[in-house]
Amino acid sequence: MARVLLENVTKVFDGEITAVSNFTLKIADGEFMVVVGPSGCGKTTTLRMIAGLEKATSGNIYIGQTLVNDVRPKDRDVAMVFQNYALYPHMSVYQNMAFALKMRNVPETEIDRRVEEAAKLLGVEHLLNRKPKALSGGQRQRVAVGRAIVRNPRAFLFDEPLSNLDARLRVATRAELKALHRKLKTTTIYVTHDQAEAMTLGDRICVMYDGMVQQIGGPMEVYERPVNRFVAGFLGTPPMNFFTGCLESENDTACFVTGNDRIMLPKHFGAVLSRYRRAEIVLGVRPESISPYRFSGQIDNAISATVTVIEPVGIRTDIYLTGPAGEKFTVSIGPHTELKVNDVVKAYIDLEKVHLFEPGETGRNITVPDGTLA
Fold first, then answer.
1. Could you tell me which residues come within 8 angstroms of residue 353 by beta carbon, excluding any fewer than 6 positions away?
2. pTM assigned to the model
3. Residue ranges covered by each domain of the chain
4. Under CATH, domain 234-357 is a member of which superfamily?
């Protein structure tokens, strides 16, 4: 096992397309780090630079104490699991798992031991004589992981390994990967665009957008204290709601005004008034923190809206609303409701759970102290 460190890493393709910009990330020995972001944000390129499959344009990459910028992929002692699993179709499961060890001239008895041990750990010991075409998607994924495990690498690199599985199998396999990491304690870097995978798997999450790190932190830290609007909107299902308005002062209290609705903010929000008074501002609130029913002790502080869609999803109901100016937002409540489409309602806001953002796609969260990005 080993720590992995990326220092100010940049990757430019063809001298003009910047895929990754000034990327810095410290991954502790034995940590499970998830790099998450939308398609095209540079996360797979970052993983490939760690593996040595792409060369960084600038910056440094360390595995353990070794600077690996000029170290060949096969000498970096990392194992990568690809999105398509990359199994050899003409080889059996055993041969696929043993191949890298044979290339390293590992003794046959040691190969047998490692393959059998990994196969048992992953529950594929009964499949060792089958070819990949005879396996299900989930079984192929386990074989690909097993091929990485037998190498006893210093770090595992996963490139969206669950994206080809159906929804039910993805959930089950997430749990298996987490349990596997607890047993092996190998440093793991896991790339995904699926925020649910990021939240459930990672010891920490690195959120990327447009080739740059947006925020690094524990899953709940990033969810509850997003440093900017992009992070707030990317994590969470349904995503955070955003309302554009301005801040005014009312009896020395900060008041968020959007259309004809006025939201009296908690006293501690008064500190932002001096800088943002009457400036355009974005109020963010997650669907579980806004409701057509009043929160305990609440009298007002609501957004006017019309119910457009009611979507039961089992343990909760998501209600899609449209405000007076046409803005769309969502509330999540308990599984049962008497509301109907076209009902006109007030959506009450839990004021202790709101965020204020500067305008723009990556507008800064002015309600979170500086220093969250680490």
1. 285, 286, 289
2. 0.90
3. 4-233, 234-357
4. Nucleic acid-binding proteins (2.40.50.140)
Residue of higher predicted confidence among 94 and 276: 94
pLDDT tens track for 186-244: 999 999 999 999 999 999 999 999 999 999 999 999 999 999 999 999 999 999 999 99
Residue 220, C-beta contacts closer than 8 angstroms, at least 6 positions apart:
none
Which of helix, strand or coil describes residue 73?
Answer: helix
Q: Region 149-176: what's the mean pLDDT?
A: 90
Residue 70 host element (H or E) = none
Question: What average pLDDT does range 80-100 have in this prediction?
Answer: 92
Closest CA to 176 of 206, 134, 146: 146
234-357 has the same fold as 4-233: no
CATH homologous superfamily of 4-233 equals P-loop containing nucleotide triphosphate hydrolases (3.40.50.300)
Main-chain phi, psi angles of 327, to 5 degrees:
-70, 140
Mean of the per-residue pLDDT values of the chain: 91
| Model confidence band, residue 370 (pLDDT cutoffs 50, 70, 90) | low
- Judging by beta carbons within 10 Å of its beta carbon (0-12, 13-18, 19+), is residue 362 exposed, middle or buried? middle
| Phi, psi angles (nearest 5°) of residue 122 | -95, 0
Residue 224 CB contacts under 8 Å (≥ 6 apart), including other chains: none
